[in-house]
Fold each of these.
Amino acid sequence: MIVHVVDGTYELFRHFYGQRRFNKGKDKPFGAVAGVLHTILEMIEGGATYLGVATDHVIESFRNDLWPEYKTGAGIEPALFRQFQPLEDALEAMGVVVWPMVELEADDALASAARIAAEDERVEQVCVWANDKDLAQCVVGQRVVQVDRRAKEIRDADGVRRKFGVEPSRIPDLLALAGDAQDGYPGIAGIGRMTAGRLINRYGPIEAFPENVLGRERELALLFKRLATLRTDAPLFDDIESLRWRGAAPGLAAWGDRLADTRLVERAAAARSGSA
């Protein structure tokens, strides 16, 4: 059995701005939602049977209390933000397990789901469908891999080492030193990704660095590492069978009408017949 865990927030952004290239600024109220639903159906049609989608129900998390400059919902276009809740509701109507995150982030849910699934002996592989570089820390050999849609690449542990120059487990150290502009923390002044990689490969995790390497910046680096380290303790599910897709709920028909998408229900029904 292969388990697929998907970054729903990224998918919503991807479809929203992808459609912007063609709609001349005339956004459909739920256009990105429809795009995500069809993406998930495409995965199911391709054989994905066990899957879950993580979403940022709110953008802020406990990390904002640790670092005030950490990413927030500021600047998100209203037309996009208004589709956050509908995405969760529509996915549930389609019979897909959804993990809406409030105190944690969608990335924490993905990391937690990957950890829980990988501990199940019935699971052959876990595929984490997410582009964010911090998700590379979840990769374990070929058992837990990262699927990067943008790069069209599936990364196992060797792939992570080739791309980032460090072991998957050292990704939080790398981001702490080099920074992550997308998440809103700068890293340590004067240390870029290549230098960070060399330091990590020489000394190990930041906690093992000699005192003189970072000096007074050591505590700041440890704070950034805490921001970069994904939580794996979210209690998302107990039984892997709860992730099995068994077809859409009756409520999907109403979503088909709401989205003005006549293909949605038909495609979901066909996918269910094909997976039966």
Amino acid sequence: MPLLKPFCAWRPRSGLEHRVAAPPYDVLNSEEARLLAKDLPESFLHVSKAEIGLSPEISPYDEQVYATAKDRFQFMRDAEIMLCDPTPRYYIYRLRMNGRDQIGVAALASVDAYLQERIKKHEFTRPDKENDRTRLASTLNAHSGPVFLIHRHHPTIEALTTQIISTTEPTYDFVADDGIRHTLWVVEDTQTIQEFSDTFNQMPTLYIADGHHRAAAAARICQKRRETSPKDDSPQEPFARFLAVVFPDTQVRIFDYNRVVRDLNGLTPDLLLQQVSTIFSLVPANTPVRPTVRHEFGMYLSGQWYSLKATLEPDQEQDPVQRLDVTILQERLLNPVLGITDPRKDTRIDFVGGIRGLEELMRRVDSGEMAVAFSLFPTAMDELLAVADAGHVMPPKSTWFEPKLRDGLLVQTF
């Protein structure tokens, strides 16, 4: 079973890449996407968030949305806004953020490897988001948003990507509206393609960083089509693969993923402080608290920041899940004190990527939308890999990855 394979990507016609490539579907709400794509008829948001072309009263999960997405994707191909490569290739995808490079290889990953946990996950999925991506991909017969995978650093992969970048001109090279530079090289040389395949397929495991819902959706589509067409029960079938970009663990950066809670579960601010002080070491702070070490947290309540610190028993420090700061906050405070028993489904909690800064936490509390906010120290890469290797999962929204891969830059059809 090949872990990764080259493929024939549908991708923007040269010169349109900066207009087609769009932010991931899940970092924008419908209104934000509508505004961003208003003057960009080529934007892939018209496919990945097709509700923007319909009345705002229509639910993003209405059947019209998926039908519209299918029509828009077909239009982009018919109008040659997107073209398909004639032979299978790998694609080198470099993201540059604040002068820092992250270089990955775009390929098709094996659904069977995912089902057999050779491609490891570290989070559960939310049913509504998984259903949405399943319906979209099944309607399109395409995976358009890549799953962000991680491999442990390998010198051969590094050497191959370095050689391609240093000796060939990129196919695309543009700076998106968020300041991230996206550069893509198409790998056509058959010997280089084979070297990539041989090296990747000898790796014991890959890890999902971002895109758990897209990977789960691909697995559901594959299993459903195998059930309805048993003759297609083969890892070589196009639907037995999903679009991915795989990066070395040494280049990937994880940001903090912070929490805001809508109410205090019936407590007054003073009572919350009393309870929190029995669980953590609590000290008022004169400035916003961005934790600098593990087991330190910031709490913003009634216009005041506090620094919280936790201590763990030795056996807890040895457990890959129990030692996570997201676990500590959930099990010691969010659940027992604020009543957030299931953060995957509870509408009283929301999650704010660290890229938005502490100012976003303060804004949401000061506006009255939320009652309290918590800042966390980012989950470390070795913590993520340890949880995945142990076959465990983290609490929801444990990791926030930046920079984000663009939708529509490469599309896999099946």
Amino acid sequence: MSAAIAQAEPKKKTPARQPKRISLQEFLRDYSDIEDGFKYELSHGLIEKTLKMNQFQSKLFFILNRLFINTVAFKNGGGLISEIDMVTVGSQLRRPDIAFYSGEQIKIMTPSSNQVAPWLAEVISPTDNADKINEKLKEYFDAGVQVVWHIYPASAQVYVYTALDEVTICIGNKICSGAPALPDLEITAAKLFA
């Protein structure tokens, strides 16, 4: 008798399950009021789940808000708000960490309207994906945002974008400016992270 060597048959690969895409209306219906410590955004019909701003990140919002009350935009009824719904391009829905809306924009906000913030800031955490950060940056400019701040608390830096290829890196006493959207919103990186 010859010994037969049993060979394992190769396992058949199961096709990867494709994530379910949803519409903007489905997203707004199902994800607008969830209070579970996460922030949900809609990108190309897919849900992106990230952590909401923590206390330290919220402190940056408070610092900027205190500075903002000295601007002409504040005197004209504008305001800073955190994690507000903003449809960017197509049916993409983002919730920027901090966004500025002019007094005129606030007057015409309704449940069915969409205003695009002229200035916004994203607080970048060590777990954020660089490709997704850059994708959102392009999306913001395509939607009409004029200035985007990427705030990096871990390295005490602020990248101030006025276009995809125009960036000022603020470190130490370098001034971070909100111009042209908020020309009188200025702070050094050192003061922001103090």
Amino acid sequence: MNITDLIFNESELPTSSFSCGPGQGLFSVRNAHLYETFFERSHRAADVTFDGLYKECIINLSNLLEIPHDYTVLFFPGGVTPAMDSVLWSLAKDSVSGVDIGAFSHLWCADLAGRLPDVSRSFVTADEQFLPQGFPNKNTSLILLTPNETATGVQLTDDYLLQVWQQRGPNTLVAWDTTSCAGGRKLPKGAYDIQIFGLQKCLGAGGGTCCMVLSPRAVERAKQPVRNLPFFLDLRNALGYVDKYQTLNTPSTINIWMANEACKWMLGHGGISAMEALCKRHADFLVNWAQKSPYFKPLIQDGAHRSFTTLTLAITIPQVTGEQIATILRSTGKQNLMDGLKKYRTIPQESLRIACFPFVDTDGVEQYKKLTAMLNKIAQRLSTGK
């Protein structure tokens, strides 16, 4: 049997993208004309920066994510990975700890922090259920946390995040990478010194642009670096443009426009609490379906630790693989399904990652009903040949 021979009627196909990044965009953004997106405008123009888009987006992000008023918000061009590097090199002193429980937290904790010179490192790793085995060292100069892991679909609970924050040492800064959940999860307010996130998931913008949030303590530390830094990684340089609502170098103004449109819609439809409820509605539908399915089950069994912004489903039939399912989805020729529902490369189980972001279905779960019907049909064909 050629696995791409399975045919779907047009009415059976969802119109949303379930990719975990870049994620589904706001419908009005998807239908906008390119000239409306500021792509031809200077990133130094007053009506784009301190009299326009950049300032408006920072205010809207601050309101949406309930960022404390005395925290500093800036755009860091180049995406989350260079922002992680900048945080590490500018703010880590003699020691770093954190939680390494998946591919994206591993990037921060191991691949990037591992290059810091003359810094002691201690990281909590995951158990067989992908959950953290304890708490990070509370007295290091910098603690790295990833509240929601995109790869495994595991999350750190609010209680866990608050305990780390409340028990931190007097000279400890706590950093969050909230790329997987910013705009979709109501996190404990102000329980961090640094928050970084890409705009390409819950906010539905493109990749390559990062938002960085810094507490007053983090700003003060950035002004007194303990090592020589490359120009781009030195947070002092980025902070020099904050009052002008500008950026160190040319950002993707299109991404900032997309994120701002998303924020306006989210704020106008109930704010972060409503967006969390919408993501949970998507995730709950998928979990309830998978728990009754003979072909799938949630990879993270503990509901309190299961992310509701990105959900990973394990495939329970040995002869069915995630790549086979992705191949059939791609064979539909539909752009929103071309990336498939990919198994992340570091996950040993055959699995699918499915975005539960707000804009995947702002009206409820109709798009997820179509997706799960497709997955049932595909899994049945692959497992039985019928």
